[in-house]
Amino acid sequence: GEWWLSVNDGTYKMGRGKIDNPNVTFAASDEDWVAMSNKTLKVHWAYLTGRLKIQGSHSLVKKLDEIFP
Predict the structure, then answer these.
(1) How many CA atoms lie within 13 A of 48 on its CB side?
(2) How confident is the model over 3-62, as pLDDT tens digits?
(3) Is the dihedral of CA 48, 51, 52, 53 positive or negative?
(4) Residue 65: its pLDDT value, please?
(5) What's the rounded Cα separation, in Å, for the pair 64 and 59?
(6) Where are the domains of the chain?
């Protein structure tokens, strides 16, 4: 499915569907997304092996570990 996530000043909102003009988008299989969320698949490795596609601001990607420790 498709989900959106908005992070602002340390708080976040999320929901189903898409939002207009996202800063960054991620595409991965449901299985890989759950594995990355559970930290059984490293985000960096998923990206390098093509299991995670990223469009938009790659600098925001680096902040994900800060946002979701």
Answers:
(1) 5
(2) 898 888 878 888 999 999 998 898 999 999 899 889 899 888 898 999 999 898 878 777
(3) positive
(4) 65
(5) 10
(6) 23-69
**What is the chain's length?**
69
Residue 18, pLDDT score = 92
Handedness of CA 56, 7, 28, 17 (dihedral sign): negative
Instruction: For the chain, report the end-to-end CA distance as a whole number of angstroms.
Output: 24
As a dihedral over the C-alpha atoms of residue 24, residue 12, residue 52, residue 43, rounded to 10 degrees, the angle is 120
Q: What superfamily in CATH does domain 23-69 come from? A: SCP2 sterol-binding domain (3.30.1050.10)
How confident is the model at residue 67, as a pLDDT?
64
